[in-house]
Design a protein that fits this description.
By secondary structure, the chain is of the alpha+beta class. Among the domains are: 9-30 and 150-196, no CATH class; 210-295, Sandwich (Immunoglobulin-like); 301-466, Glucose Permease (Domain IIA) (Distorted Sandwich), CATH 2.70.70. It contains 9 helices and 29 strands. It has helices at residues 9-25, 52-59, 63-69, 107-114, 118-125, 162-169, 173-179, 312-325, 461-466, and strands spanning 43-45, 83-85, 95-100, 138-143, 151-155, 193-196, 213-216, 220-221, 225-231, 237-242, 245-248, 250-251, 256-262, 270-279, 285-295, 301-304, 347-348, 355-358, 363-366, 370-373, 380-382, 387-395, 399-407, 410-417, 419-420, 427-428, 433-436, 448-454, 457-459. Strand 10 and strand 11 form a beta hairpin.
């Protein structure tokens, strides 16, 4: 959300008086009524991979009832895009769809965005508590084919009235009350997100709101980088934490702010707290906090046999060395766009994240990078993006290794090299030759072990070779 300056006090007073006059002259309007969704039983649109039994299980109804109500003669002949009436969901109407709960969403904001009654949302998702709006979790909601989607209009500040909220949202107080199922102004709570279809563009006071925060991916995934973006206000500072680990925000333009945190490939799946705070130039602070789902990723398992490099002291030394070297992020971002592959004619070897059993249980660990076999007519290793070389030396496990600092806490690593083409302190750009593939350190043959690290946490390198960050 781009920031603008606040309207002056006289302008704000004039707006309040104008809306009061409109309130007096306007006819009474009944509030608290939900918009009429499509009448009758709810509809589900068949998606790729759906079966009658999977649809029935998703909505907790009987497959035979779906077949009967829709006149289906062959349960195996569902077509993608086919509209099915779902029986047994009394009180629920509209088109059923599945949405991932975004960061900042609550039970009430979900009701407001999709114009659902609480009983309908609870029934269709078989919820047991209003607190089950965990970011990253999939919820079934209903939409109306014939209505425009609702979107966030404003966030209620401390002491704000319904009339003031309506002015900021660019709508009328009675419509805002109806769209958000409010019993009255007493229903407004500081931090509440109000939804609707604005009659005119909303006033933007430059403050942090949930609409200005992006969390990617949701759900959070083992072995991937968690990216948090904020469309912020110049002069503001941002901080936060994920499961107790501090978030550091960086910016190129004092408008868009980003923080990256590495999720360990063996992190325990579950629910973790994410907190984001903003301090404005005037010293005021806003904080958003929500539980976020972290999901398991099946990276597989490997059994590896090696003849060298299993000494525990050497492993401890190397881990401590790399942790210290990768623990101080550079505030400048050197890279731009997607990272390029580090070799010509890339042939993928062992994949990132696989649980590894070395020499029948002598060491149990996981693969921290992506291996590339030798398939090209050369052994060249290329810098995947611009950065500064911070390590170029022999290590006990990784052998001859190079690490490049790309800024903002993002590093690339290269192991088992036969030769170095760069040294510490060199500035490189994407495509520069930095070394040659080899077989040094703990290696079972010539190959390149390639890493992307967020701080000292290795994440899936292939994601950075396929997607643009930020």
């Amino acid at each position: 959300m781009k920031s603008k300056t606040m309207k002056n006090p006289l302008s704000r007073l004039f707006s309040l008086v104008l809306v009061l006059v409109l309130l007096i002259l306007s006819p009474a309007v009944t509030v608290n009524a939900l918009p009429n969704k499509q009448e009758g039983n709810p509809i589900y649109i068949v998606q790729s991979g759906d079966t009658l039994s999977s649809i029935a299980a998703r909505f907790g109804v009987d497959a035979d009832d779906i077949q009967t109500v829709n006149g289906i003669t062959d349960p195996n002949s569902l077509a993608i895009g086919q509209r099915l009436t779902i029986p047994g969901l009394e009180g629920v109407s509209g088109v059923l769809t599945t949405e991932v709960v975004p960061f900042g969403a609550t039970f009430d904001t979900i009701l407001r965005e999709y114009q659902m009654g609480p009983a309908a949302l609870i029934k269709v998702n078989r919820l047991t508590s209003r607190s089950e709006s965990i970011a990253g979790v999939e919820l079934i909601v209903t939409v109306n084919d014939n209505e425009a989607a609702y979107s966030p209009l404003s966030m209620v500040s401390s002491g704000e009235t319904l009339l003031e909220a309506a002015i900021q949202a660019g709508t009328s107080p009675w419509l805002l009350s109806e769209q958000n199922q409010l019993g009255g102004s007493w229903d407004l709570m500081p931090g509440d997100i109000l939804y609707g279809i604005a009659e005119e563009p909303a006033e933007d006071n430059g403050s942090l709101s949930l609409a200005s925060i992006t969390v990617n991916p949701l759900p959070v995934l083992q072995g991937e980088a968690l990216e948090i973006g904020i469309s912020g206000l110049q002069g503001s500072t941002y901080s936060g934490s994920f499961n107790g680990a501090a978030l550091t925000f960086f910016t190129d333009d004092s408008s868009q702010f980003y923080s990256f945190i590495g999720i360990h490939a063996q992190a325990e799946p579950g629910i973790y707290p994410l907190q984001i705070s903003a301090t404005s130039p005037d010293g005021s602070t806003q904080t958003f906090e929500q539980l976020v789902l972290l999901e398991d990723v099946a990276y597989g398992q490997q059994y590896v046999s090696v003849t060298t490099g299993l000494d525990s002291n050497e492993i401890t030394y190397e881990e401590s060395f790399l942790e210290a070297a990768l623990s101080t992020p550079t505030p400048e971002r050197y890279w731009d766009g997607v990272f390029r592959y580090p070799v010509d004619e890339p042939c993928l070897g062992s994949y990132y994240g696989a649980d590894r059993d070395y020499n029948n249980g002598t060491l149990y660990y996981y693969h921290t990078g992506q291996d590339f076999s030798v398939c090209a007519q050369n052994l060249n290793i290329y810098a995947p993006a611009a950065g500064v070389v911070i390590i170029a030396e022999a290590l006990p496990i990784k052998g001859n290794a190079i690490y490049i600092d790309h800024g903002w806490g993002v590093y690339s690593g290269f192991a088992h090299l036969s030769a170095f083409n760069v040294e510490v302190g060199d500035t490189v750009k994407a495509g520069d030759i930095i070394g040659q593939i080899g077989d040094t350190g703990r290696s079972a043959g010539p190959h390149l072990h390639f890493e992307i690290n967020i701080g000292d946490i290795p994440v899936n390198p292939l994601t950075w070779l396929e997607e643009v960050f930020p």
